[in-house]
Amino acid sequence: MKTILPLLKRIAYSLMLLLAVIVLNFVLVHLAPGDAVTAMVGDMGGATPELIAELRVEYGLDQNLPTQLFKYIAKMVRGDLGISFTHNLPVIDLILEHLPATILLVMTAFFMAILIGTVLGIIAAQRPNSLFNHLITVISLSGYAAPVFWTGLMLLISFSYYFPIFPSFGMETVGFRGTFLEKTFDVLKHLVLPAVTLASIYVAVYSRLARASMLDVLGSDYIRTARSKGLSEKVVVYKHALKNALLPVVTMAGLQFAQLIAGAVVVETVFSWPGIGQLAFNSILRRDQPLLLGILFLSTIMVVVTNLITDFTYRILDPRIK
Amino acid sequence: MSNTTNVTSMEVEYRPDRPLVEIWRMFFANKAAVFGLVLWTLIIFTAFLGPVIYSTDPFDLVGAPMEPPGEEFLLGTDYLGRDILAGIIHGASVTLAIGFSATIFTVIIGVTIGVLAGYYGGWVDTVLMRVTEFFQVLPALLFAMVLVSLFTASLYLIVLAIAVVTWTGIARLTRAEFMKIKEREFVLAERAMGARNTRIIWKVILPNALPPLIVTMALGVGVAILFEAALSFLGLGDPNAYSWGYMIGSSREYIWDSWWAVTFPGFAIFLTVLGISLIGDGLNDALNPKLREL
Out of B229, B262, B293, whose CB is closest to A215? Predict the structure, then answer.
């Protein structure tokens, strides 16, 4: 019971956050000039005032705001995110269709960044004044300062044009036929550049964080005890120190997941990766409000779920937290 | 680097009567920070005097399309025949204007919320922190994209959108500092003497909370510049402002034939953000010598 209660509390709180996002979406739509009907009519190339009034009734825009808000929430909770004007399909179907590609990209970049960042950070922490340490500082600052879309374009120019190792766009070769294994390899080849681009920002963050927290942990009493027992440096660093040094990295990684998804929007645009970022970009070009707001809502759900997972990973890594 | 800061940080403790001089000296002892300062001096110089010295209008079609860097056009031309160098020079002021004004708005929102939450505590704190957490789960860039695309894109809207999606960091930091400082003896003494809340907040606590805030503000300028670049790259920028992000976005279809049209503006953004990050790190070392390793 002791472990289940905080879990339920967290879940209830997460649901409140999502409800708030729905309300925010509603407020934004109503603050924006024009309404759904105006946009639709604009798309159709004009309509008579009678038709406009009819559409308003049909979409419930003639009712008062609280009623509209209530109906909107009820709709969203049922998973009905509206209809995309441009695709003429339910927003939820469009998003679910593009979601796997984004999850593949974001997860690959996420683990790549944590792994590389932690390894770099730990090596740097063991040799505080070495050249390697300074090199890591330079890498991390550069990864942070370069706009992510520019990093992507530079990688494209380098490794897709001048050294044509990787394909330049999409997730698979058009018309590619082959066994499952060959297809997987084809997707992996497409995945490398976008994933490296997206990971580049976070490698910077995690390596600095891992370095700082490793230095902190290595200076603590229990590590001195471990060393004085005569344990080898390897055992001390990887068995005793690593677990504690990872805590801040895990927290930070979880907290930054929202930004990782946002970063994916830009990266997907650069590499024409067929995920929700690409979808968001197209919906902006065509002023497809329901689609864009649906994407904002669904990516927030992803963030909230990841935060929950992070929270529980943290509890497993650090049993002191109750 | 760490050795020199160590020595000077000890001197600070011996000469508390001249803190600004010491901060100044520590900052200048840091080579990376000085490099950042040099970069920013150049960028500010370019923003103010560049257009006077190099007056070519970045929107003008002055040459053949996609001309490689060479004698006539130092950095080449884009797919329409616009001068890249002119774009970079004229884009500097747009970048700086956005960077600074967005940071000012971010600070106004963040500090106000952080002060109220940290100083008053209780239910005010609970409510404001819930709001902050709410903004933190929204993917910032995506939210900014939504804000800008729902309304008509202009520099003001972009500045506001950037502030709305980035204030949470400053708010949390301000709150933490206020919660820490408000329990200190000199604050309690002020309160015992009957000082009003406004005096304690602005005259007593805030000046003591400034060092970490200044560092975060410097880094915030970099964040704002990156946000503007990304929005402009995605085609959500102000159509009347020639910004570096816009240059990259408009030329990205042509990268195979004119790499220079995206490489140079991106490098300009890179140097600008790198410069302000180095300055921020340098200020961090100089203002909070004890937190150097963080």
Answer: B293
Q: Tell me if B234 and A266 make a contact (CB, 8 A cut-off).
A: yes
CB contact under 8 A, B151 and A33: yes
Helix (H, G, I), strand (E, B) or coil at A85: coil
Whether A307 contacts chain B with CB within 8 A: yes
**Which residue did the predictor score with more confidence, B2 or B284?**
B284
| Closest by Cα among B224, B97, B235, B111 to B163 | B224
Structure-model confidence comparison of residues A113 and A133, the more confident one: A113
Mean pLDDT of chain B: 82
Are B266 and A265 in contact (CB < 8 Å)?
A: no
A129 touches chain B (CB under 8 A): yes
The dihedrals phi and psi of A224, each to the nearest 5 degrees, come to -65, -40
What tens digit of pLDDT does each residue of A163-198 get?
Answer: 877 777 777 777 777 777 877 888 888 888 899 999
* Inter-chain touch A147–B233, beta carbons under 8 Å: yes
Minimal CA separation from B154 to chain A, in Å:
15
Find the residue in B nearest to A209 (Cα).
B294
Give the A:B interface size as CB pairs under 8 Å: 136
**What are the structural domain ranges in chain B?**
31-293
pLDDT of B9:
45
The full set of domain ranges for chain A reads: 4-77, 94-321
**DSSP strands (E only) in A136-187:** none
Question: Residue B77 forms beta bridges with which residues?
Answer: B83
Quickly name the fold that domain A94-321 has: MetI-like fold (1.10.3720)
CB contact (8 A) between residue A144 and residue B273: yes
Determine how many CB atoms are found less than 10 A away from the CB of residue B274: 21
* Predicted structure pTM score: 0.85
Q: How far apart are CA B193 and CA A18, in angstroms?
A: 46
Give B283-292 pLDDT, tens digit per residue. 877 777 654 4
pLDDT of residue A53: 77
CATH number of B31-293: 1.10.3720.10
Q: Using alpha carbons only, what angle is made at residue A133 by residues B25 and B290, rounded to the nearest 5 degrees? A: 40
User: Bigger pLDDT: A319 or B291?
Assistant: A319
The residues on B that touch A, with CB distances below 8 Å, are 2, 133-134, 136-143, 145-147, 149-152, 222, 226, 229-230, 233-236, 245, 248, 252, 255-256, 259, 262-263, 266, 269-271, 273-274, 277-278, 293-294
ipTM of the complex: 0.84
Q: Report yes or no: A163 at the B interface, CB cutoff 8 Å.
A: no
Q: From the centroid of its chain, how far is CA B160?
A: 14
User: E strand or H helix at A52, and its extent?
Assistant: helix A49-58
Q: What are the contacts of A25-28 at 24+ separation with CB within 8 A?
A: A25/A72, A25/A76, A25/A293, A25/A296, A25/A297, A26/A68, A26/A69, A26/A72, A26/A73, A28/A293, A28/B146, A28/B147, A28/B150
Alpha-carbon distance of B279 to B283, in angstroms, equals 6
Tell which wins on pLDDT, B76 or B123: B123
Mutation target among B31, B142, B258, B267 for the A interface, most CBs of A within 10 A: B142
Q: From the CB of residue A27, how many other CB atoms can be counted at a distance below 10 Å?
A: 12
Distances (CA, A) of B114 to A6, B107, B121, B178, B206: 27, 10, 10, 8, 11
Report yes or no: A35 at the B interface, CB cutoff 8 Å: no
